[in-house]
């Protein structure tokens, strides 16, 4: 009999973070880091790259462009559920919800009412 296992079904929720946002890390090895800037959002993997958070060491091979090779430190992505958007009004990371104001969707901080965008 043939197996019907077709692999895991992933539901990817849309991250409400954008490049340039200030975030605070709330979980994981870098808990408490921030506020730091989001460098890149990877929606397919539900991940974000945050400046100076989750630094990894990358060993570079010798090439014609880089004849010495070397060791490079760069940011690695973390799951977006481990970060909260930073609100200067509240002075901490806040959860956000989407609201429609003046005919367009905006992100609003839940406890403080800060409008992002």
Quick structural overview:
The protein has 117 residues and is mainly β. It has strands at 22-25, 36-42, 47-50, 55-60, 70-75, 78-79, 83-87, 92-94, 96-101, 104-109, 115-116.
Question: What does the secondary structure layout of this molecule look like, with pairings?
Answer:
Blueprint: E1 22-25, E2 36-42, E3 47-50, E4 55-60, E5 70-75, E6 78-79, E7 83-87, E8 92-94, E9 96-101, E10 104-109, E11 115-116
Antiparallel strand pairs: 1-2, 1-7, 2-3, 3-6, 4-5, 7-8, 9-10, 10-11
Describe it.
The chain is an all-beta fold. Helices cover 0% and strands 44% of the residues. It has a single domain, classed as SH3 type barrels, CATH 2.30.30.30.
What's the number of helices?
A: 0
CATH architecture: Roll
- The strands making up the biggest β-sheet line up spatially as 6-3-2-1-7-8
CATH class: Mainly Beta
Per the principal axes of the C-alpha atoms, what is the gross shape?
extended
Largest sheet: 6 strands, antiparallel
First-residue to last-residue Cα separation: 54 Å
SSE string, helix = H, strand = E? EEEEEEEEEEE
SS strand fraction: 35-45%
Estimate nothing, just give the exact number of structural domains.
1
How many beta strands in the DSSP annotation? 11
Helix content: under 10%
Which ranges are low-confidence, i.e. pLDDT below 50, for 5 or more consecutive residues?
none
Q: Structural class per helix/strand content?
A: mainly beta
Task: Give the averaged pLDDT, no decimals.
Answer: 87
């Amino acid at each position: 009999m043939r197996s019907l296992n077709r692999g895991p079904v992933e539901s990817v929720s849309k991250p409400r973070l954008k490049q340039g946002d200030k975030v605070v890390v709330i979980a994981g090895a870098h808990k408490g880091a921030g506020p730091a800037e989001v460098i890149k959002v990877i929606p397919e993997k539900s991940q974000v790259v945050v400046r100076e958070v989750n630094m990894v060491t990358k060993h570079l091979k010798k090439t014609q462009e880089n004849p010495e090779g070397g060791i490079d430190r760069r940011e690695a992505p973390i799951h977006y559920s481990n970060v909260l958007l930073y609100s200067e009004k509240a002075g901490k990371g806040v959860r956000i919800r989407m609201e429609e104001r003046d005919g367009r969707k905006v992100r609003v901080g839940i406890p403080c009412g800060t409008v992002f965008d």
